User: Fold these one by one.
Assistant:
Number 1:
Amino acid sequence: MATKTLSTKLLERIGNTPLIELKSYSNKVKVFAKLEWYNPFGSVKDRAAYWMIKDAEKKGILKKGQSIIIEPTSGNTGIALTGIAKLMGYDVEIVIPEKVSSETKMILGNLGAKLYETTDDLCPRVGVGTDQSIALARAISSARPQIYFMPNQYENEANYRAHYESTGPEVWEQTNGKVTHFFAGAGTGGTITGVSSFLKEKNPSIKAVAVQPQKQHLIQGLRNFEESDMPPLFKKRKELADDWYTITNDESFKATKELFEKEKLLVGPSSGCVMAAALKEVGKLNGGVVVVTFADDGRKFRSLYTNQNVFTDSEFDRALKEARMLTELPFDSIG
Ligand SMILES: Cc1ncc(COP(=O)(O)O)c(C=O)c1O
């Protein structure tokens, strides 16, 4: 039997991430976290990236050794697309807002992406005239359409389908159908709409809750929809979010720190944001099974966390040593 290549092994590790109970938060309401940093390139975005590339291959859009994938992204989608596309034989160019953490940019460079920086806010904005990253990626790709493919996670149905076909079924199976509430941060809306759609087919009373950060936030990967238009992918299914929470930077960081203190989990800031919202909801419930999405771990965020006084440098070093359930990643520039 042929032995599997490293590429195949990494690609096979997309999805099927662990769901763990957060025992120090569970009481009459059980609280579980879906640890999306177990994906091979370290975030929930591996799912969307893989599905978008496979979809383009199926449609005959991509040609190995010739095509270049270009995408505007604030980090995780770029890391996922670069890592996965390289394994599958494509080059990648990323258009990235300059405020994205230096660790993220370094990872992208290490993985072999060509980077274009813009002065956009933390996330590329979808509204016309405020979307430099999106506009620049469009301009580069439309000049040479035979070479460039822009997956455009903000409109690509394969992003939604990734979660309808993988994350949703996993949450259902891992809770033995007992999930009552599902929480996810809102970026493109792929996670919340895809998972909600699947879970509601199984049990229409399951509540899907979208979490957005405050205006002028510091939460990489998420967006506030009062200051940024809702991406088309999200807009057309926005009724799949039954409820919304808006969480401040301070609340997000407090929950991030507390997750380390109570659970020894070193999470990314969007996980803290989602956790803060879930805890508000849990306070109103008498029972149930709440699932929160932890989109990435905290290792890329040393500079953010020390600048915002979430952790001092030495606390962060200690957290790196003591944190449980961190995985080995195929890039070594973090920590
Ligand atoms: C860290 C993080 N959390 C959450 C999200 C939101 O996921 P989605 O785009 O599926 O709404 C993203 C998206 O980039 C992210 O990077």
Number 2:
Amino acid sequence: MRVALPHMGNLYIAFKAAFGRLGVEYIVPPRITRRTMSLAVKYSPEGLCIPFKLTLGNLIEVAELGADTLLMPGGYGTCRLGYYARVQEQILLDMGYNIEMVQMGVSEQKFLGLLRMVKRLANDAPWPQIISAVRFGIKKLSAVDRVERVVQKVRAVEIEKGTANRLYTRAIEAIDEAEDSHALREAEADYTLRLGRVAVDPGACPLIVGVTGEFYVLLEPFSNLDVESELGKLGVEVRRTTFISEWTKFSMFLNPLGIDEKEKIHRAALPYLKRDIGGDGWESIGEKVLHSGEYDGLVHLAPFTCMPEVIARNIMPRTRENLPVLTIICDEQIAKTGMLTRLEAFVDLLERKRRVGNTNKQRVAV
Ligand code: SF4
């Protein structure tokens, strides 16, 4: 059995670590590239969203490498993502790949569902071994996310642009290669220290821009043309709403215990939208409302044809909270040059807004 999961940011690190400890052969798919996109567009129904297309393209690539047991999230909810695994399975079978698609029903069975799935794939290994392997995978994810938060801050103020990104790439490799918890702690501490030593502009007061939107396009840099890094190059500190380790912690463990991390954000969105509309649309609106006094602007990532984000996009300009929002539609037509031009214009606007705001404050003080 050769197990694989399509890429979504750094999620593969956790699965590779957990399956590695259980002796299951896990194949890391090739990084998502233009080739993935070409395969995706060729074999996907045209009107589907970019998460469907890129995961399908990546599944084809990993099936080419010999993976025969493919994992995909699935389950209930108002988003059509729950049905994607079955459609993708049929496409892959029609293409002649001899694969089994395993749906990770995490939305229904939470942590227990994940453990059961891992147990089945690990040839019925004993429970303590399963739990320890999964815990190790989650620890790695948490380390990656903590390092990433530091990178988001350093990128905005570093003197030599690209230094934080280079360290981040090496940190990911070190965390991925860590064989036990001790090595993992050392790798995280080492790279956090190195990032802390990056030469930064002491007088910099970076703009703070939130990045929100649909889960997949938030977490997979290829799908958003690495918008966070591009904002960092423009001297912007990014605050992303979703990190995979936090999502795992709440969705798998805390939500079933009645702890809802999104309650505050849903309450903020209530004056404009009274109910969940699927995907992450409700949260996107809440983010704008909740952080209007804290951020200078918000980048909203919305996959083309994603109904929840289309609804959010149409509601956002009507909120009383006056936070500039730049919506970027993510699909196969998105081009880097166009996105960079829009980002530069957006950052110019935010800088001007801040300057004007500061001048007005000084006038009031006089
Ligand atoms: S939330 Fe939107 S983009 Fe994400 S899977 Fe559902 S329909 Fe597609």
